[in-house]
Each structure stands twice: as C-alpha cells, then as structure tokens.
C-alpha cells in the first residue's frame, strides 16, 4: 500500500505532497484544483505491466506520445525539468521520472524501486505494484458487463467471491449468471424469486459495484483509480457504493483513489467508514494558494465533520 505521494513538475503541480495516504483516498476541491491530475500521477507509478500514460480525460489519447499531448504533461510547459512522481510504500519509494528527450518532444522514462534499485525504461520488472487499474464511470452497456463478467469469473473461485461481496449490500443475492435472451446476453441475478432479475433492474449503485469488484477481483488490481466516483449515480445509491467499497478494502489487498464533486458522496463515505480504523478512509482537500501553487490538506475526523455540517462548497 502507498503511504505517501509526492508529485513534481506535473500538469498543475509545481510540487505537491500528500501524507498520509489511507486504504481509501477521496480527493475533493473546486474545479481545476488538480483532483484528476493526482490520480493520473498515481497511474504512472511503476507497476509490473510497465509505464502507462494517463487517459482519464480523453481515452482517444491512450498511449499517445505525440508532441501535442506530451508537452502538456509538464507543469507550465517546463519540459527542461523532469516530472518526478514518487510513491512511498513499506518496502521503500517507487519512483517514475519522465523527461523530454528534446527530439520531437518524445519521452525518456525511468522507473526505480528502492531499496531494490530495480530500474527499467518502458519495460516491466519484478517487485513493483502488480496492477494499477482505472475505472470509467461512463455507464457500461449491459451486454459489455456480461462479457466482462465472463472474463472476471474465469477462475472458479471468483464467482463465489463476487457473490459474497455483493451479498453485503444485497442480502437476497444467491448467484449471478449471464444469459442470452432474445439475442442479448446480459447478467441476471438470483435473489430468491421465481425468476432471475436482469442486473440493470437492481439499480445503478449495484451495477457500479459489479464494475468495481470486477477490477479488484477479476483484474486483480492492487490500486484502483476512479475519477468522479459519483458520476451517473443518484445520491441515494451512494451509501450502497461506499458500503461495498468498505467491504472490499477490508477483505482484499487493494487501495482506492477517487475524486468527487459531491458533498453527498463525501457524507456517504464518512458514514460508511464510521467506526473503522483511521487509516481506512482519508479525505484530501486540494486548495489553490495565492502564489498559484496547490497544496493538499488531509482532513481529520473533526474537520470532516465540520465540513459536512456547514455544507462547504466542494465543486
């Protein structure tokens, strides 16, 4: 698990330190305060699958190393200085350094794991985080979700793990199965009724949890990134989402980074984690200072409670 994060010369950040990190990290702040940029930075930390450019804002840029894209990764276009992203773990810092090569503004990337001193350029190595996964909050078609479920449950035990997690928020659930009816293959849920229910009928919160668990269980993510986690959800679904996330981080070795514009989302998270260990949930507020820098304030329980009582603006 990452315990702290430092970002230098990346996008809107000249220098940013976030300490401490928790199992679940929820980033809040006004527009253009850098919430998405934080989880983009996390996505570029060393992982066993190699270096990846962020693609949260526009997935058409996925893997794009053209000058039109690359130059905007550097803070204030200052590509004479490297981007440095350092995530501290229990085994030491894991560092990504990104420099402009000066030739067509292509990138030179160095990833280092200390104290192992593993170093690689664009290639995977051992001893780093296994998988960092990003979850799109765009509504996933029911047919695509059924196809994904087939992949996620290829391992026999994964289907039972899915059901056991989901039963925490829907106790009636007995089994999930994809069926093809009238030419459309979608997931159906057995909730003890005479007939199985199509998954979309169980509500948007439940469907989002299936996607979250798919990344954790099916794709074996040990870091999950979710931009605007409340996107597309009615406020009434948020308690269910956060209850499900609490169960996931309690039972699985996974760390979650998410952003939100919603005070209702923060309140639901705080309520779901009430009484849990302090390092399970951290709410980080990004603030733009007078000199143009951005700082991170990690709120303690009292500060978070006051924020919710006063209905502070978080958009």
What topology does this entry show?
Blueprint: E1 4-10, E2 13-18, E3 24-28, H1 35-43, H2 67-70, E4 83-89, E5 92-100, E6 107-113, E7 118-120, E8 132-135, H3 142-152, H4 156-166, E9 175-181, E10 184-190, E11 197-198, H5 204-218, E12 223-226, H6 238-251, E13 255-259, H7 263-272, E14 281-288, E15 294-299, H8 301-309
Helix pairs in contact: 3-5, 4-5, 5-6, 6-7
| Poorly predicted spans | 115-127
Q: What is the number of independent domains? A: 2
The value of Rg in angstroms is: 20 Å
Name of the CATH architecture of the largest domain: 3-Layer(aba) Sandwich
Tally the helices: 8
- Which structural class matches the secondary elements? alpha/beta
Average pLDDT confidence is: 84
What does this 3D model show about the protein?
- The chain is an alpha/beta fold and 315 residues long.
- The protein has two domains: 1-131 and 222-315, P-loop containing nucleotide triphosphate hydrolases (Rossmann fold, 3-Layer(aba) Sandwich); 132-220, no CATH class.
- Helices cover 26% and strands 28% of the residues.
- It has eight helices and 15 strands.
- It has helices spanning 35-43, 67-70, 142-152, 156-166, 204-218, 238-251, 263-272, 301-309, and strands at residues 4-10, 13-18, 24-28, 83-89, 92-100, 107-113, 118-120, 132-135, 175-181, 184-190, 197-198, 223-226, 255-259, 281-288, 294-299.
- Strand 1 (4-10) and strand 2 form a beta hairpin.
- The radius of gyration is 20 Å and the shape is globular.
- Residues 115-127 have low confidence and may be disordered.
């Amino acid at each position: 698990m990452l315990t702290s994060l430092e970002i230098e010369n990346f996008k809107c950040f000249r220098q940013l330190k976030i300490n401490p990190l928790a199992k679940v990290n929820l980033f809040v702040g006004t527009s253009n305060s850098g919430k998405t940029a934080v989880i983009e930075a996390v996505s570029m930390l060393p992982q066993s699958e190699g270096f990846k450019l962020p693609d949260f804002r526009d997935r058409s840029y996925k893997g794009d190393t053209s000058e039109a894209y690359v130059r905007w990764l550097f803070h204030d276009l200052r590509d004479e200085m490297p981007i440095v992203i350092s995530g501290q773990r229990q085994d030491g810092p894991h560092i990504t350094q990104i420099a402009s090569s000066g030739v067509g503004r292509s990138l030179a990337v160095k990833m280092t794991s200390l104290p192992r001193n593993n170093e690689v350029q664009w290639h995977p190595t051992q001893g780093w985080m296994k998988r960092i996964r990003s979850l799109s909050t765009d509504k996933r078609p029911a047919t695509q979700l059924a196809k994904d479920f087939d992949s996620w449950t290829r391992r026999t035990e994964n289907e039972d793990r899915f059901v056991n997690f989901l039963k925490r928020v829907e106790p009636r659930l007995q089994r999930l199965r994809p069926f093809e009816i009238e030419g459309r293959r979608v997931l159906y849920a057995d909730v003890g009724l005479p007939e199985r229910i199509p998954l979309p009928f169980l509500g948007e919160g439940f469907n989002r949890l299936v996607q979250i668990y798919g990344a954790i269980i099916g794709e074996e993510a040990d870091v999950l990134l979710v931009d605007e986690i409340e996107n597309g959800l009615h406020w009434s679904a948020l308690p269910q989402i956060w209850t499900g996330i609490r169960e996931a981080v309690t039972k699985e070795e996974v760390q979650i980074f998410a952003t939100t514009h919603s005070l209702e989302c923060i309140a639901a998270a705080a309520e779901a984690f009430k009484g849990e260990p302090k390092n399970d949930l951290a709410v980080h507020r990004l603030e733009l200072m007078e000199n143009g820098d951005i700082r991170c304030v990690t709120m303690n329980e009292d500060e978070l409670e006051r924020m919710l009582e006063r209905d502070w603006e978080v958009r």
